[in-house]
Amino acid sequence: MKLQTRRDFLIMTAGVGVILAVSVPAVASNSAPHAKRATAITQVFGDGIRLSAVAVEYDTPVKGADLSAADFRVEGRTVTGVFTSTSADPADRAETGRFVIVTLSPDDTNATLAEKVQGQGVMPPPIGGSGGGPGGGGPGKAGDIPHYDTVYKRAEASIMMPGGRTLATTKVKNLIVDDFHQREFHDPKTGKMLRYNLFVPKDYDASKSYPLVLFMHDAGATSDVTRTTLFQGLGAISWASPEDQATRPCFVLAPQFAEIIADDDSRTSSMLDTTIDLIKSLASQYSIDRKRLYTTGQSGGCMMSIAMDIKYPEFFAASFLVAGQWDPARVKPMARQKLWILVSQDDDKAYPGQNAITEELKKDGARTSRAVWDGTWTAQEFQAAFEKIDAEGSSINYVTFRKGTVIPPGESSAGASGHRNTWRIAYTIEPIREWIFRQQR
Hints:
The termini are far apart. By secondary structure, this protein is α/β, with parallel strands linked by helices. The chain has helices at residues 6-12, 228-232, 234-237, 242-247, 271-285, 300-311, 350-363, 379-390, 417-426, 430-438, and strands at 17-18, 21-23, 35-45, 48-63, 73-74, 79-85, 96-104, 114-116, 150-152, 154-155, 158-160, 166-174, 180-186, 193-199, 210-216, 251-256, 288-298, 318-322, 339-344, 368-373, 396-401. The chain has ten helices and 21 strands. 21% of the residues lie in helices and 30% in strands. Strand 3 (35-45) and strand 4 (48-63) form a beta hairpin. It has a nine-stranded mixed sheet with strand order 13-14-16-15-17-18-19-21-20, with helices on both faces.
């Protein structure tokens, strides 16, 4: 029997949605504005994409003051608020608008759109993927195409109107994700094809020069479905948020690798050079500042970033390395680079691995600073801790999350939990992103 591919599964599940039953209040009565259509709204969090709201469009404006969250019921979900907006985007909130936004708790058990699949010829990949030194139990060898165990369901909602009328969502709005373009790069040098997601700054002006951030996903997001890396977490999304773009406009490049790009034996696939060639190609098409190229990645993507920094030591202005490591005997070219390294003490591979790398870089003359942070801190606490280590002025900052602080309540720290939960938090820490953009080559 033919094994179904990742794309087969994504296509097969494209119409399988999260069905919500929303009771709409008296705003939809005969004397009130008439509901025309509804849109399901998704948002990406540190641990992936979730159905976070429903937007109901009316034929005439609705007053926000007439709405009450208590009037809205969503079966199996927690309604956290309701307000009017001028569009289906919650950011366009207004006192009066033709759209009513019903916000839902992202902590609801059925909020997530990721779904594990097994059987039917698809087996889950091995646990791990951080790399852990030669022979460590990782996801496979560089260049391997792993089995796929995750699909992302299409978000759908069924709105039940007074009188028995049902209004089903006809659209899906994926916040920030929809701002990325999906493309393919056919590398004339390597002959390889690479799918990628590209965010172009709003109001791009070719007369100006923009930095570019490269984000590379971990082995668990390996797929031939281009937007998988955007659905999985905040590694690419955080840099493209309206808040970040307002102060730090930049291009964001998120390749979608269909093969393992780095393995536990400190080897990479040919996608290393293809990705570098892609960046060079984009820099020739757009006004991208080659002195402000930045790389970041989690787990296998972190390992690829390290490998790039070793092979192309003058290419990136700074690197944000999350939950990964490499053979410390090879990292000497990184000693003069600008690095922010982040790992959890619960990560039994990346933590000792980064300890070894940092010690090697110090031997090679790198100026380094170290700190221990708490993964449960508030944004204000992260800011204060950042300011303390930043004041030391080192080119390499190595931060570890204190043991147990990245593990969500009720979740075991066994297996790869401490590893995966590092990047659940890492890309929410805004001052690290600010530090990265300060660096220039």
